[in-house]
Design goal:
alpha+beta, three-stranded antiparallel β-sheet, Aminoglycoside 3'-phosphotransferase, Chain: A, domain 2, elongated
């Protein structure tokens, strides 16, 4: 990550309201005043006074975490409650990250405003397009924002947490920093629109508040899901949610068709992989084809990234967000596979434990692994590709651990 990432993200956040200028000093010059929007990486008290005096009425102050040279999150500086609420844009599940965040939140509650070299100020003489959108959708005239700059450069999104003064979260805006990410934002908007047609799911997914062009980019604005971080281990709440999802739009897909579709996509992926992958892919397709033969797979709506970090829990009800990878005719077992794998990594399990049921046989599991590798290649996530290569080799050797999972049969055969 570089300074370009930070400035590009802030320019996207500000929009084209007269242009932006990266301002590195603490004084305004006459040439600066020609811009209706300014960005300062040296926000001294003198500069703040000068901005106010010269008509820059709308200002957003942020602390960049961990630093301006390695930006990941921008948390608003202002009232401590707003700053603390801004940290909700990052909800870690690993214990080390949770501890660091807990310490950081404690410092913000005590009034700490970040290190001087980690602060930035955005000032404008008029409303930005995003400011206007939020006011039109929510009625909030002076929204407060926190920003997340994403992790994977190939599909990097800008996610904006929208709040009222005081810290009440109103929703999240997403837009892409690269073309492939914009397509994912569009896909999530389409998914939320389709999912809203199923009454039994509405209370467990975000509401689509707005989707469309804002100036020169596409944005998605969705409601917030409240609750605590979802459990890191698969349980009854997950099974209940997947059961509801499976009943929304059930379908039966011939295994032969699914294998053929994946084979076509796999062929176009090979150019980005190492020399042993053609053999691994062909073996995966052969084994899944033999295991499934002429079966019809019970398919339907699949989240696509059903993982602890994309869930919240309220009482005994699981809520799920981040639907950009959703599919409508995929094997229903794939979400369970994905959750168990991510859960095993989060909990540092020595062995992968998967639910044993009629739905979760070797053929659909191997197809899931191959499909996932293709997605990780698109994201240029080499770490995940290496890990799933190990899982695929273990599956070939029959080294997966299959155990009974309570409720696993409730969604029927596949």
């Amino acid at each position: 990550m570089t300074q370009d990432l930070l400035s590009d993200s802030l320019r996207l956040f500000l929009g084209s309201a007269g242009g932006t200028l990266l301002q590195g000093t603490e004084h305004l010059s006459s040439s600066d005043l020609g811009f209706s929007t300014l960005l300062s990486a040296a926000p001294s008290e003198n500069l703040i006074r000068a901005l106010r005096k010269n008509g820059y009425a709308r200002r957003h102050s942020f602390v960049v975490i961990p630093s301006r040279s390695v930006p990941r999150w921008l948390v608003p500086i202002g009232e401590p409650a707003e700053t603390v609420a801004g940290t909700r844009i990052y909800e870690p599940h690993m214990w080390g990250a949770r501890l660091i965040k807990k310490l950081l939140v404690s410092m913000f509650r005590a009034g700490w405003r970040g290190w001087p070299y980690s602060n930035v100020v955005l000032a404008s003489k008029e409303r930005s397009a995003l400011d206007t959108l939020v006011s039109e959708v929510t009625g909030e005239p002076r929204p407060v924002f926190a920003l997340s700059l994403g992790r994977q450069p190939a599909v990097r999104k800008l996610t904006i947490q929208v709040m009222r003064p005081g810290g009440q979260i109103l929703g999240y805006i997403k837009t892409g920093l690269v073309p492939s990410a914009i397509e994912r934002v569009r896909a999530e908007a389409r998914s939320l629109e389709r999912l809203s047609c199923y009454p039994r799911l509405r209370s467990q997914i975000p509401r689509l508040l707005h989707a469309g062009k804002v100036e020169d980019t596409y944005v998605l604005f969705q409601s917030a899901l409240y609750g605590s971080c979802g459990p890191t281990r698969f349980g009854a709440v997950h099974d209940d949610f997947l059961n509801r999802l499976s009943q929304a739009s059930p379908s039966a897909v011939p295994a032969r068709k699914l294998v053929g579709d994946i084979a076509i996509k796999w062929a176009s992926t090979l150019q980005y992989l190492g020399e042993d992958w053609p053999h691994l892919g062909n073996e995966a397709l052969r084994r899944s084809s033999e295991a499934l033969t002429d079966a019809e797979l019970r398919c339907g709506i699949v989240h696509g990234d059903f993982a602890p970090w994309n869930t919240r829990i309220v009482g005994e009800r699981l809520l799920c967000f981040d639907w950009e990878s959703a599919a409508w005719d995929a094997p229903l077992s794939w979400d369970a596979f994905h959750f168990h794998i991510t859960s095993a990594r989060l909990n540092r399990q020595k062995k992968l434990v998967l639910p044993r049921s009629e739905m979760t046989d070797e053929g659909t599991f191997i197809l899931y692994l191959l499909k996932s590798v293709m997605q990780f290649v698109e994201e240029k996530n080499e770490t995940a590709v290496r890990y799933y290569r190990i899982l695929l080799l273990n599956a070939f050797r029959g080294e997966q651990v299959w155990v009974e999972c309570p409720g696993a049969n409730s969604r029927g055969p596949g």
